[in-house]
């Protein structure tokens, strides 16, 4: 009997130990993560900090955007013994009135931020105050602030970073968020038994950020912005751009945009425009050279053919389309040099619709280049109606972005190749190579286009931009804007363009100048690409070429 009782008791004890071991095993291995989360929730809390991002450089190594180390000063209010004294000591350092600091220290919140985004050099002074007052629950957290040393220069390209979440909100800062890093980090604070934070345990580090080197040259960017500033002062347009690109690599060297903004104070602005990429506009006569070159290449027009200008007007599908002058007999070159609407319309109507629209599609029009966030693809609709082809040949009824125009004109300059535009020279230490998409212009077309577009600047519609020192090839463009008030094309509101490259013998730069609704200087003046956009060229190109140490290719008289 006694033996049975001993066995029963032993079995009972064994069972209790077995249950304890199983429970311990379950807690140690099965419930481990769940319990750790519970403990963390019970005894820790976290606060957000802005993490530093990679630096953005220009091609010469100048800093365009950088994260500067800052500090945030906080207090665990429950444990501050002499709030009045601490407020008085902190006031001259933080440059905040003692009353405001005291109000925060008397807050019902256990954890309060007294000041943020302070220069890191103040850290030593704060620590001295902490030691002097023996207020060990006054603390410092290191954070970061994005700074743009050049202010408005190039701002529409670079964009800005949110001061609230540390992420890029516009421009290249937005496009390369995943590369530059940043964002919100966490500081982990330990809590006491009743839930009040008492000390910082750890801070999250930013391990995945890389620097970016842009193809932008800050000196060229400044020249472009200076030229644009003069144009804006004179013409007061709604929007304007000066885009400069390397035609052989597609690398963007400068993109000046009006209106601009200061990314250091982005919250003071309502709109962040970049019409170079996000705006699509009718390009006017910029379309004409490509139509005529294709017509000559395919034999639709003979090299020695004379095209009659119909004294400045033509009817297509019963609709009258006018020229800016009354032209008579014109050669194919003169149609482009003097920008005859009638001459190019008569040429365009010799193409089959599909063949005609392929001229522009092959040059990249109608498709986004994916260079910039929110970039427009433009609109290129294919209509077989003769009147629609007529308008399309003179750059009306379809739209393109300035960057698409730069790519198309770069193809003339670089030997006929469509290239992908880019702002990026390096990501980290990795060099980003140029991307050539395909050959789109024949050698015959390039030869004709170069010689003809050179004459456009020397003798034709762009002669106001002619340089004494360097040869320039290009084309002006003017497009009437649609006015919703009169429900028709306006005779007062225009888009004006110049697109071209230089020097002609060995093109180093492609340039696009665009304005939206430039104003007249004199009442009798005719607004157009020649009178507005091409005027930017002369001084800008001379400055740029002398800066690049390229010898003049003209004989100076």
What distinguishing features does this structure have?
single chain, 5-stranded antiparallel sheet, 2 domains, Penicillin-binding protein 2a (Domain 2), alpha+beta, elongated, Beta-lactamase, 557 residues
Quick structural overview:
This protein is α+β, with helices and mostly antiparallel strands and 557 residues long.
Structure description:
With 557 residues, this protein is an alpha+beta fold. The chain has 2 domains: 46-214, Penicillin-binding protein 2a (Domain 2), CATH 3.90.1310; 218-547, DD-peptidase/beta-lactamase superfamily (Beta-lactamase), CATH 3.40.710. Helices cover 34% and strands 24% of the residues. It has helices at 2-30, 32-43, 83-94, 98-105, 123-133, 155-158, 171-175, 177-180, 218-235, 275-278, 288-298, 332-337, 341-348, 353-362, 386-393, 402-413, 443-458, 537-547; strands spanning 44-50, 56-57, 63-76, 111-119, 138-147, 184-191, 197-203, 212-214, 239-245, 252-258, 307-308, 313-316, 319-322, 329-330, 417-419, 424-427, 430-431, 436-439, 473-483, 488-502, 509-516. The strands form 6 sheets. Strands 2, 3, 4, 5, 8, 16 and 17 form a 7-stranded mixed β-sheet that branches. It has a 5-stranded antiparallel β-sheet with strand order 10-9-21-20-19, sandwiched between helices. Strands 1-6-7 form a 3-stranded antiparallel β-sheet. A hairpin with a 2-residue loop joins strand 16 and strand 17. Helix 9 (218-235) packs antiparallel against helix 18 (537-547), helix 11 packs across helix 17 and helix 13 (341-348) crosses helix 15 (386-393). The longest helix is centred in the first third of the chain and has 29 residues, at 2-30. Mean pLDDT is 88; it is low at 192-203.
